[in-house]
Amino acid sequence: MKKFFTTLFVILIVAFAVFSFFRYFYLLKINYSLELKLREINDKIVELDTTKKNLETVLDKKKEEYLKLSKENQDLLVKLQETETKLNEKNSELEDFKKESQSAKTNLENLINEYAKLKEEIALLQQEKDTLQSRYDSLPELREAYDILKKRLREAKLAERKSKVSNIDTEDGNKGYLLWKGEPTLERKVKIEVAPITE
Hints:
Largest sheet: 2 strands, antiparallel
Number of strands: 2
Number of domains: 1
Oligomer: single chain
Distance between the termini: 206 Å
Order of helices and strands: HHEE
Radius of gyration: 75 Å
Mean pLDDT: 81
Shape: rod-shaped
Strand order of the largest sheet: 1-2
Low-confidence stretches: none
């Protein structure tokens, strides 16, 4: 019986030793696997840290670029506002120029119309001048004709007057004497008229 317990005890010890060995080997394998995992994790951490630093560097550059772009954007906005202001001024000047151009066009049209009227007036004046010039050129002939006509009219009036005088009855006259031999020559009132010779 004692031998049985001894054998059982030895078997248990051997079994425990074998179990402990396998357990140790298993734990050793797990430990090695964990060490590998830990190394991988450390490598990953180092890699991630490097990546983080690189990303931080890139981020800093991007921030600088963003700030630079933001400043450029602000400058562009200012320039855009200035350009818009100048454009509005130019548009206002253009509108003023259009109005002045329209006014100048209207004035030009009025001047053209006035020029046409003046040309017509000048043509009429030239025509009148030509007419007057032709009359002036024929003035000596007109004067000569006028003198001849005037002379003829005077002669006609003289002839008419002589005819009237020759037709007066001698009884109606007194030969120019109001008194003849101390006696009045007129028994009635006589109206004496002197008709001037009109030229």
